[in-house]
Amino acid sequence: MRDCLFCKIATGKVHAKIIYEDENVMAFEDINPQAPVHTLVIPKKHISTTLDIKEDDSALIGSLFRIAGQVAREKGIAERGFRLVSNTNPEAGQTVYHIHLHLLGGRHMHWPPG
Ligand code: 5GP
Ligand code: ZN
Q1: CA dihedral (24, 55, 94, 79) positive or negative
Q2: Is 87 in the pocket of ligand 1 (CB under 6 A)?
Q3: What Gene Ontology molecular function terms does this protein carry (predicted)?
């Protein structure tokens, strides 16, 4: 989608520190990390919010979780623990309207979240 930041990252038009990429999924470092590990996992396909996920996207969404776990293992935080977050719409703090999982870890995660 034109003018979508994460579509531009997915197509290489905007630079990001990419740590995983396949045909459908990309993982890259968040530009403003909130934890020692803060990686974003996105589908290359544009989906604006979690409310726009269709049945046909089920395997793709599953891949986001699978790849997030793979990145957590590679970064050595899998056993300690990590958090996967997906914000939807303004009150949850969504700022980029292309779905993404935040993979957060490397420090203690508080609950309830802020
Ligand atoms: P949201 O607020 O939508 O849940 O998450 C968007 C995330 O994208 C934020 O954590 C923000 O720091 C990150 N972000 C915003 N612009 C860029 C950018 O240009 N490059 C990268 N790598 N991350 C970005
Ligand atoms: Zn997009």
Answers
A1: negative
A2: yes
A3: catalytic activity
